[in-house]
Amino acid sequence: MKIIAIETIHLARGVTVHAGPIQWLWVRIHTDEGLTGLGETYPDPVTEKAVVLQRLAPVLLGRDASQIDRLWADMFEAIAYSGWAGAELRAISAIDIALWDLAGKAANKPIYQLLGGASRQSIRTYNTCYDNYSFLTHPVELARSLYESGIRAMKIWPFDPIAKVTRGQYITADQMRQGSEPLRLIKAEFGDSMEVAMEFHGYWNLTCAQQIARALEPLQPLWLEEMLPQDNLAAYRELGQSTRLPLCLSERLMTRWQFRELLENRAARFIMPDICWTGGISEAKKIATAAEMYYLPVCPHNCGGPILHYALAHLAANIPNLYILESVRKHYLEEYIGIVPDTLGAVNGEIPLPPGPGLGVELSPGVFARKDLCVDRME
Questions:
Q1: Both 91 and 139 in a single domain?
Q2: What range does the domain containing 128 cover?
Q3: What is the pTM assigned to this prediction?
Q4: Residues near 244 by Cβ (< 8 Å), separated by ≥ 6?
Q5: What is the distance between the alpha carbons of residues 158 and 152, in angstroms, rounded to a whole number?
Q6: How many degrees, rounded to 5, is the angle at CA 232 between CA 230 and CA 234?
């Protein structure tokens, strides 16, 4: 199954999240047997596709697509001297997902079967709240709408607006009450029947993070996610030792080597790789297995496009130490419509196992008729 062409596909129109507009880049690998494999990364398709076509395509063209581990190692070596983070790893991630899609199609099996089979019949999910209800102004209404749909866990980030005012360098008592209020209201209404994870996007210094953690302890959020930047894991260890609440990180760590330090310093109680950034399905499986040695659960980051959503469903179906899978209700109910035929939405708080073979999904034909379509190809 020889690779004969590599294609990048993206739409000029992006989607808007808390950090601003993002765009999904899809990578399609063509083989001499007529099979194609589909992968994805985000959020900057211009830089990512340059790496795919200029740096990685020469490594892949003419090669056997079934040699996934060998190809990953050769791609990693090809980008080693330009830095193995950022766009380089995001590009490798997209290609790796596409190679697994090809492997599943060639075997006529879903990817999760190739990874070792299903560890569960469906996948518990929580909602990251880019919703019509604002968690800042209508937290109880938002929680109720999720509860009525069967979702029993959600993630909010009410301290972010405060961090943008103070640059994360201080927090007043009034601001502490303001940031805590959405969580307090949801807990007052739902008690333990709605779990609430708190996201911080790395905006805070260590002192403020410790103050916030102490203030939130009586409210018992599910976890505290990325309170600090990601470049000093020793500081995370100090934070973890100063609170009874569990820490979750980090979507922004790349490869098993960066996660190794996190696992060894024991700062995190929930491990959160993003397979579109950390190195694809191959690397995320290795990270999950390493976390399993430390008896740590995995909660993959899932805020990208529909191909990531499917790829993560395969990983989540397989890994024994899955705790819960993130998903964005607004994405599978709205943003993915017209991009893929089936958005693989949650049903009663559970995402079904994806169909096969491979990922079990292709881009909808309508994508290729859009005026904002951008396609580049190397062969």
A1: no
A2: 113-352
A3: 0.96
A4: 217
A5: 19
A6: 125
